[in-house]
Structures are given as structure tokens and as C-alpha cells.
Amino acid sequence: MRLISILLLTLVFAFSVNPVKASPVDTYEFNDEVTKIRFQALTKELRCPKCQNQNLADSNSPIAADLRKELYELLQQGKADSEIVNFMVDRYGEFVLYRPRVSSLTYILWFGPIVLILLGFIVVIVIVRRKPVAKSDLVLSKEQQDKLKNFLNDK
Amino acid sequence: MGSFIRFLPLILVIALGVVLYRGLSLNPQDMPSALVGKTMPAFALKTLKDNGQVVTQVDLLGDIVLVNVWATWCPTCKYEHPYLVDIAKDPQVKLYGLNYKDDRAAAQQWLKNYDDPYVFSIFDEEGTLGLDLGVYGAPETFVIDHHGIIRKRFAGAIDTRVWRREFEPLIAQLVEEKNQGK
Q1: What is chain A's percent helix, strand, coil content, to nearest 5?
Q2: Which of the four, A56, A150, B137, B159, has the lowest number of CB atoms within 10 Å?
Q3: Is B6 part of a structural domain of the chain?
């Protein structure tokens, strides 16, 4: 009994500990709220080149910290979002964009799903609108009916 | 027509399987550099050896150049170092170092301990040139032609195999271009 209560207590303690979420802490100060929001949006939008499945906001890697610093400085210089994104793409390639730009390379990515949905609709419409087999074809002709009668009478 | 439609799902599944199977052997770390085909970014940085000597992109012009990004905090750089010492003996190329976000004293000691294969090393303490080159780690090696155009970027360690496969054909091509006066 005592053992069980100890076990239960351990369980309670094990689960009551708050999971520590490791996420980088920078101490950037912004002059105004808008710049801060833009910084947060851009760090979410830009991908860390080293750790490929994390964005800049999420990553602890040194390169992500460097890029956050660079991003902060570009914002302080009063650069527009599009200029900052171009700056990053010029250096690290389209790869750093979590939302790839629309270009001939990414048409299939952007428009593929819409095309597939449209194709699906077309298939459904074609199937639904296909003419049902005419009723007259299902009815036995006079000749056939006579034959049938003969078969039945034979029995 | 009817039998084709019947087999269509099977055909699609096989096609999907082929695509996904191919994906298994692709290297997601293998990224083309955004800088291939562009000129070497402008910089003015001091050399690792001499805090008073400033070098710029102009100092790299005229030869077929390898720029090797290295640092003492990078274990893979230690692995590739002996190969770099070998490559530096090749008269067709000039090997420059880009000492990336490193400690000057430690880096100087490294070159004393393990031989210095570089014509000179650019001391990029803040990583500014690294950023302009799109460097995201070390080691990385850039091939720059005699016009100062970046022709290749290779992320990872160079050894004999990598050198033969990734660099030798390109260097031969560049030497040819240079000899033809292109």
C-alpha cells in the first residue's frame, strides 16, 4: 500500500513539472510596437539555413542568431519587409522562404492543388451528368415477350 | 479505355512510389548557393596574421581561387586540413582562407600547429563576409574564377574523394577557359 502511494506521488510530481520549452531569448529593443511585430513576423517567415525545419524565431543555432541580429539591424535602418526578404534570398537562396514565391519553378506547387480539385469536380460532374440508360432499352420487345411466355408455358 | 481506367490507380501508386523512393537518396542539406554566377561580394577585412593589413575582393582577382571557410571551433575543419595542405601545392589554384567567427590567437596557433595552406586568411570575426556569402557553417569552400565570379559553393569537408568528384572537373574547365582567354 505504502509502495503504491509513493509511486502515485512520484507520478504526480513527474507530471506537475512544467515542460521547459527551449527557445532562444534575444533582448532586442524596438522603438515602436510595429517594428517589433514585423520582427516577429519575419523571424517566423524566414527559415534557418542550417536547421532546416525551424524558422529563425525557433532556432538556437548560431547562424539563426546571426540572422536575427542582421534582421534587427536592417529593421533599425528602416528597410522595408520586401527589401529584407530580398537581402536574405540574395545570400541564402529561395530556400529561406517558408512561403516560396510564385515563379515558373513553383507553379506546380501553388496551382497544382487547385488544378487537382478542379479535375475532381469535372470528373464528378461528368459521372453525375452521364445519361442514364434509356428506359425503353430495358423493356422487352414484343418478340422477346412472346418468347418468354412460351418458356413459361412450357413449364 | 475501360481497362486503362481500371489500372490507373495502380499506375499512379507505382509512379508515386518511384518519386518517394528517389527522395530517400536525396541529400536535403545539398543546397545550391544563391551566389553561383555572381561576383564575389565586396569586403574590406584584416588578415588573420596582420591586424594592420586590410584585404579586399580585388586581392583575390586574376587567378582561379578557392576560398575555404574555416574556424578553430569546427572539428570537421581539422579533418579536412591535411587535404587543404595538399591542394595548396596545386599551381593551378590559389587557396585563401576565410577565418569565420573565430578567435584570432587560437586561429594563429592552429596554423602554427597544423601548417598554413592559405596564401592568406581573411579574419572575419563578426561573420559579415560570411553572411554576404551565405555561409551557414564551416567548413565551406567557394570556387571563384579569374574574373571574380563565384562558380561553386561546397558545404562540408573536402577529402581526396570529394576533391576528385566535386572540384577537379570544374578546375580543369576553368583552367581551359582561362587559357582560351575567355
Answers
A1: 65, 5, 35
A2: A150
A3: no
Residue-wise pLDDT for B117-156, tens only, equals: 999 999 999 889 999 999 988 899 999 999 999 999 998 8
B58-92 pLDDT per residue, tens: 999 989 999 999 999 999 999 999 999 999 999 99
User: How many domains are contained in chain B?
Assistant: 1
CATH number, domain of B59, equals 3.40.30.10
- Residue B64 belongs to domain spanning: 32-179
Decide if A92 touches B, using CB distance below 8 A.
Answer: yes
For A107-140, the pLDDT digits (tens) are 998 999 999 999 999 999 999 998 777 676 778 8
Own/partner pairs, B14-19, CB within 8 angstroms, 24+ separation: none
Q: Is residue B12 part of a domain?
A: no
Closest Cα in chain A to B133: A91
**Which chain B residues are Cβ-neighbours of A89 within 8 angstroms?**
34
Query: Which residue is closest to B134 within chain A, CA to CA?
Result: A91
A-chain residue closest to B100, CA distance: A63
User: pTM here?
Assistant: 0.74
Residue numbers in B near A63 (CB within 8 A): 136-137
Contact B136 A93 (CB under 8 A): no
In the three-class reduction of DSSP (H, G, I as helix; E, B as strand; rest coil), residue B150 is classed as strand
CB contact under 8 Å between A66 and B131, yes or no, is yes
Residue bearing cell 561546397: B154
Alpha carbon distances (Å) from A123 to A111, A127, A131: 18, 6, 14
Scored b (16 or more CB within 10 A) or e, A9-46 reads eeeeeeeeeeeeeeeeeeeeeeeeeeeeebbeebbebb
How far apart, in whole angstroms, are the C-alpha atoms of residue B130 and residue B102?
12
